[in-house]
Amino acid sequence: MTARQALHHLVDDLPEREVPTAKRVLEALSLAGDPIHRSLMSAPFDEEPDDDDFDGGLTEARREAREGNFVSHEAVKRELGLK
Description:
The protein is an all-alpha fold. It has six helices and no strands.
């Protein structure tokens, strides 16, 4: 019996309550070999300031949304004659 076949048997014999945990463990193992995923997970946290000089107006847009100064999705659809 190959190792892969043994794993299939182990998975088939798992109690149902353990299946989600086994799924997470196997997913983590499969991602561990992915160099892009490893690179993303080990990248330093972005500590750049979030201001209009760097974010293209995102800070201002968030402030306007908090203040209720926006056009709703439904209003735009009505204006464009969409359902």
